[in-house]
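name: query_chain
kind: protein
chains: 1
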Amino acid sequence: MTEPDADTARVTRQLDFLAEIEKLKSVYRATPLADLSRPENSAEHSWTLALYAVVLADQAGPGVDAMRAVRMLLVHDIVEIDVGDVPIHAQGGTAHDSAAVQAAEARAAERIFGLLPEDLAADLLATWREFEAAETPTAIFAKSLDRVQPVLLNLQGGGGSWIDYDVTLPQLDERVGTKVARGLPGLWTRVRARVEPWFAARGKGV
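structure:
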């Protein structure tokens, strides 16, 4: 049986972590909300993706655990509390996957999840690392959702960050489409058919 003092210490660490993650609501992303009133924040992005995983679970391939994907997507951007959002189209798409960014995110994950009791810290850090590695069917599915949501949000908002970063359809295919199609090829075919007219109308289709 756990001692009362140990219980108090555990709950204190849990509440410290939950207080820390409130900061994610103040981390703004490149993609604006559909009504263009302000940028989307990373907490909103994570919550939306959790719903994507539930709603689009029937589109997932073999071996995907949709509820584990929900866990991944709820924690995948917590590192942005320390690192901030690195837009996928910034600096020609190279900054997002740079070694420096990945190292900074790894340090942030260890610090933030380390606020938790050891068992929870190990569990959530392993979940975050599985998502980042994108090797298991569930992580590949979660990564695909993470890439497709900004596409649909930009389309709702009339272009959003595509306009800000002067994105072309081939660039979208390279930086986003290949990753979405890896886990959700059928979905990407349908989403691409929706965005292609937007790029064609602006001479950005080729």
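note: Residues 164 and 182 are 27 Å apart (CA to CA).
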